[in-house]
Amino acid sequence: MAFLEVNNYHKKFGENEVLKGISFSLEKGEVLAIIGSSGGGKTTLLRCLNFLEIPDEGTLTLNGETLFDASEKKQNTESQIREKRLHFGLVFQQFNLFPQYTVFKNITLAQTLLAKQDIRTKKKQFRAELASLSKEERKARKIEQKHILSELQDGLKKRIESRAEELLARVGLSEKRNSYPYELSGGQQQRVAIARALALDPDILCFDEPTSALDPELTGEVLKVIKGLKSSDSTMIVVTHEMEFAKSVADHVIFIADGVIEEQGTPEEVFEHPKSEKTAAFLRKSLEQV
Question: Rounded to 5 degrees, what are φ and ψ at 252?
Fold first, then answer.
């Protein structure tokens, strides 16, 4: 069984069917590049994988666990959807950093909120425990619980901050720790966005046209970071219009046109020996625009 299996994804917006039965699989540690013309369904597919949109049909299995099955009648709660969303990290086209926070806080914010949730859960468990104790036992146990919670909070804070420092170094921005997004170039902002997505240690990291909002001279620095992640055994899905990048970094390539997978295979098969005329025409047009 593959690490990720997507089967028969369909998605409509009103009468417009954007995804018309998308199926593919991905092994752990592989990089999948998704290419195709604008409006073909690439971004919608990524949003469905990240539970930002809910498919009308289809199933998604990750590491043997079914995370989504459209045929199930019971709807997931918002908290369940948030939990499933944590399996995927998404780097957007437009960075989506919080302008009021520093680089460091942008990276640590989501982890900090999850840590606070863990603390609240632990406090609830402690309160339930106290209810079953005598008055004297309760007094002693409260002191123990306070000490445990303090150590837990300190440990989580140190772990979150250490991880953020590590990721800043990985994307080459350690010196920008206390800068705000407006003080950074587009390429630097996108590298912060990559670090933020990695901070939650997702099973699969997704990129939606990560260089489309960048000037050409800034594109290279972002692509270099993504290539560097491949060597660290990250499983990635990259929607991109950079054909040379897709050719060099991907293990598998999917060409999507009009909501369906028109062609898929290795980079050599898709780029050098396309079987579909639609694929060949798209690649010719891409080369003309370079």
Answer: -145, 145
pLDDT one-digit tens code per residue, 29-46: 999 999 999 889 999 999
Strands lying side by side in the sheet with 65-69: 16-26, 4-13, 57-62, 65-69
Give the pLDDT confidence of 231-262 residue by residue, as tens digits: 767 899 999 999 989 998 999 999 999 999 99
Q: Which residue has the tokens 């440990």?
A: 155
Each as own residue / partner, the long-range contacts of residues 183-189 (CB below 8 Å, 24 or more positions apart, any chain) are: 184/103, 185/218, 186/95, 186/213, 186/214, 186/215, 186/218, 187/214, 187/218, 187/219, 187/221, 187/222, 189/95, 189/97
pTM: 0.89
Q: In the chain, where are the structural domains located? A: 99-203
- Strands 65-69 and 204-208 turn out to be unpaired
